[in-house]
Amino acid sequence: MSGHTTCWTVIHEAAGGDAAARQVFAIRYERVVRAYLLARWRSSPLVHETDDVIQEVFVETFRDGGALSRVDPSRPGGFRAFFYGVVRNVAKRAESRHGRRRDRQPATGFFDESPQAEQRLSKIFDREWATAVMREAASRQRAHAETQGPDAQRRVELLRLRFYEGRPIREIARLWETDPTELHREYARARKEFRSALVEVVAFHHPGSADAIERECTQLLEALT
Model pTM? Predict the structure, then answer.
């Protein structure tokens, strides 16, 4: 796969049959697809077919004339909205197959197709997408810190203790035997560094103007609340 700076390069290379691009694409988005399907089918026998339908999503995405060949970078909502539509359509197709088999199976699952259910599933998809982006931003911040030295690595650890372990700054200050005021300053700097990493990741997934990238960052953070 050639070097790339945005997800659209990966998308176009994957659509063109590049095996490395397809692997990157599948690794990047598999967890998002799984979360959506499990939420959609949590009370349905189709939940046992989740792995097969995930594979179907990627087959539909990569096949000649498939979803990636039709993707439009100018589409409102960017690739996230486009891919949500692909996953939803493949899920509905699986449900239709299930419905045709109902004469040979007990009717143990029902699919709620109400607007309220679709809105709930859309929020689940967006939240999992946001989680994946935040995870990628944290990984990028760690990678940057490894090239910048111990102080930057310490700020990454500070964020981990604060967010993943939920420890207050005063407790971390005691643990590290550090002045809390100074640690608050380091914490503010660590947050700025994470935001910069987040902007880089969002620019990859959602290329556009600086204002558009900032709006997408805000929407992703809101999806997690």
Answer: 0.77
